[in-house]
Amino acid sequence: MARTAVSGRLAWRVARLAEFRDETPTARTLVFDLPGWPGHLAGQHVDVRLTAADGYRAQRSYSLAAPVNGDRVELTVQRVADGEVSEHLTGPYAIGDPVEIRGPIGGWFAWRPTNPEPVLLIAGGSGIVPLMAMIRARRAAGVRTPFKLIYSLRTPAEQYYADELRTPVAGLDITYVYTRELPEGRPGIPKRIDVATLNTAAWPAEFGATSFICGPTAFVETAADILQALGHDPHRIRTERFGPSRD
Q1: Beta-strand runs (E) in 79-225
Q2: Which of 40, 93, 118, 234 sits CB 3.0–4.6 Å from 209 for a disulfide?
C-alpha cells in the first residue's frame, strides 16, 4: 500500500489552468484543475513540467500556496528573467492550457492543523509561499494554534498576498522587515533580520514553538542561527531554502 501511494505521488498528472491572479508585477498565483489529486499538507511542494511542441521538456519545483481543496492546486510563481518555465507560466500561459504536475513532495517542512504548539513562520521574499499555505490551512481547519509571521522583503511593492495579510486574523501576529525601502510614513531605516528583530517578534524559546523558515539560503541560515542563539530547540526549526537559479 505504501509503495502504491508513493508511486501515485510521483506520477505526472495533466493539470489545466482554471484561474490566476497577479500578486506583484512579477509574481502570479495560478490555480489548476488537477483531476485525481491525492491531497497534500501545507508546506509541501510539487514538480511542474512543460513540454514544447518539439518535445523539449523543462521542469521546476514550486511550493503549494494553499491547503488541499479537492482537485484544485494553487501555486505562486515568481518570474525570473530568462527563466524558461517561470516566464511562460507568468506570461503567455492561458486559461485552459495544460501543464504536468507531480507530487506532493516533502514531509518534513509541513504543518498539520492537529499540531497544538505555537508556530513561528519566517519568510524571505518568495519564501512566503509555503508559509501562506500554513496560514490558510490554519484558517480552513478552524483551529486557534497561535501563529507569528515575520516577513522580510525588499520593498512594499514586492509583498505577496497583500490584501489577505492586511485583514486581521485572531491569533496571527505579523511583523514586516523591509531591507531596501520602507512603506510611506513608517519610521526607521531598512534593515535585514537580526537578533533584535527575532528577540522582539518571535516566540520566546521557552514557549516551545515550531519554526518554519523559508527563503534564500543565506537568509535561512542567518535566521536559524539566530533562533538557536536565542535558545530555540534546533529540532523544532525546520528550513526550506532556495539558491540562485536560472529559473
Answers
A1: 98-105, 119-124, 147-153, 172-178, 210-216
A2: 118
Contact 216, 127 (CB under 8 A): yes
User: How much of the chain, in percent, has pLDDT values that exceed 90?
Assistant: 89
Examine the pLDDT at 40 and tell me if it is beyond 60: yes
Nearest CA to 59 out of 103, 21, 97, 109 is that of 103
Q: What percent of the chain has pLDDT over 70?
A: 94
Listed in sequence order, the DSSP H helices in the chain are 2-10, 86-89, 128-141, 162-166, 195-201, 217-229
Looking at the DSSP bridge assignments, the partners of residue 111 are 42
Exposed e or buried b per residue across 154-176, where buried means at least 16 C-beta atoms within 10 angstroms of its C-beta: eeeebbbbeeebeeeeeebebbb
Average pLDDT of the chain is 93
Buried b (16+ CB within 10 A) or exposed e, 108-137: ebbbebeeeebbbbbbbbbbbbbbbbbbbb
For residue 111, the 8-state DSSP code is B
Summarised one tens digit per residue, pLDDT across range 188-216 is 999 999 999 999 999 999 999 999 999 99
State if pTM tops 0.90: yes
SS3 label, residue 68: coil
Q: Within 10 A of 68 (CB to CB), how many other CB atoms are there?
A: 19
Contacts of 17 (CB under 8 A, 6+ apart): 30, 31, 32, 93, 94, 95, 96, 97, 99
Distance CA 39, CA 68 (A): 6
Tell me the per-residue pLDDT of 223-234, one tens digit each, with 9 for 90 and over. 999 999 999 999
